[in-house]
Amino acid sequence: MAFDFGRDRRIRSRADFVRVQTYGERATSPHFVLLVAARAKPEAPEAPAPPSRLGIVVTRKIGSATVRNRIKRLCRECFRLWPGFVPDGIDLVVIAREGAHELSLAEVRAEWARARPALLARCASVLRRGPITAKPPLKGRPKKGRPPSPGGRPEGKERPSS
RNA sequence: CGACGCCGUUCAGGCGAUCGCCGGCCGCGGGCCGAGAGGCAACCGCGGCGGGAGGAAAGUCCGAGCUCCACAGAGCACGAUGCCGGGUAACGCCCGGUGGCGGAAACGCCAAGGAAAGUGCAACAGAGAACAGACCGCCUGGCCGGCGCCGAAAGGCACCCGCCAGGUAAGGGUGAAACGGCGGGGUAAGAGCCCACCGCGUCUCCGGUGACGGGGACGGCACGGCAGACCCCAUCGGGAGCAAGGCCAUGUAGGCGGGCGUGCCGCUCCGAGGAUCGCGAGGUCCGAGGGGCGGUGAAGGAUGGCUCGUCCGAGCCCGUGGGUAGGCUGCUCGAGACGCCCAGCAAUGGUCGUCCUAGAGGAAUGAUCGCCACCGCGUCGGGGGCGACCUCGAUGCGGAACAGAACUCGGCUUACGGACGACGUCGACCA
RNA sequence: UCCAGCGAAGCCGAAUGGUCAGGCAGCCGGCUGUUAACCGGCCUCUAGAAGGUUCGAUUCCUUCCGCUGGAG
Question: What is the ipTM of this complex?
């Protein structure tokens, strides 16, 4: 019951992905980039926060379809078996880096655990700020200082799948 | 026994436990409709039942189905294919054959039409590279000279060097390729100049559906290579693609500025209203406007290379400013899968029977643990053997391929781990 | 999903059926008190891979691999 992972726990529209990748805050680990942003609130302001959602981005640069599927399954499983990894009302986007498919589930979990304290701090910051409702600008994202990110990540090019 | 060759079938580790994902069916509850009984194709939750990747799902190299472009028309252009026969919905695929090349053989490979329609190309080397050419050489004649022999002399004979004129293409040499090959005759030397065989060409006979094969006669070398160079000939191809296309919702509306057009005729129907006759019901006439059919004309548009032809046509085009990205469907019963039999050398086709087998959409088909199987290496123990080693059991470590449906089929190509079975060739040994 | 184009030295890049320019970079030498600039010389290519056509292939054909771009 607590380990369910239905459609309401997944990010399913391109607009949501773009919102998180544009305005979200970042935490990194050797094989992943984790981005968080607040979920858009429903009408009723007193309603409880909606559950957190997961979206996964694995570009074709990472590997073949089989490899990409492997990574996505690992990430989904790790998120599913860890309720409360991020608080409710948070959208989490995981971007895979090269070599992620060679990890086992336990290794992914360990890596996420190391990144979690920083990630939770970002979540708190993002929840204070509240959801961004403004539409993202059409042309690219503001180029903030980019930490050294090996492998880089193409943007806007071929559509990443999750 | 060894070395090869070739064909076919089949699997894609198994079982269990726990936690999940996608869609289907059933039930209950919510929800919705209804006064109610009750109903629900569509929404949400819970429970149950059964289903859920491939042989290549891949590359996107071909062929089709399906959908839209009015019909899918003609010519040109462009592209593809290219021995023959068959198979097929179709194909550039498959099967059987023919020819060529490779191999000792089994067998493998081949885009394999046309170079006597035209154009073009061939570096370097070489004398000459396409209606060729003469460097060395060989031969003949002439001239000058030298030397030897014979002769008393005149002169004669033989040889060598140089030059000139001519003959020749056998030999040398160059090249990927040199204007038939080889042998004999012939000749001053040579040459298809002549002859035999082979090659080539023409005619012809026989066999074959045909590609082609076999034979005969004649010719007397005339016709080199490259068409995966342009090209010619034959055959085929209209274009786009499921983000096709359809339905619902919505702001493809409406606004502003500018431009072009909305025509005419006939038949017919409706007809506000008007005039007139009648006591009246009603009749007759005129009739703005509108509908239908037909003809003609038309701004503009369709036929995604061009032209023609054809078709649509009452609205259309340009600018300006302002928006949308959601849901349903197409979506899985099909040139379908399996089995028996029959026809055929085969590819394949046919009758009958049985079966229904993923349908996602930021995209499911998974994760973890345990046990059992498989392979490799190591250790220990038992058995066999003189021995290399074989075999059985236990145990530790490692490995266990290529790879993920996106409308659906038929092929091709590429990637890749096994298991099983059949056939053929050659060599060695034994009988 | 569909469709184009491109792979040549460490880098950028012409031309082409006959072994492949040029520039930058590098190395050596010269000039200068030294460096830069300049001058002279040198080095560097299985032409993405494998087959085929041709006497001969980087070029033509086929199949793979990688990269880039475009359409909806």
Answer: 0.74
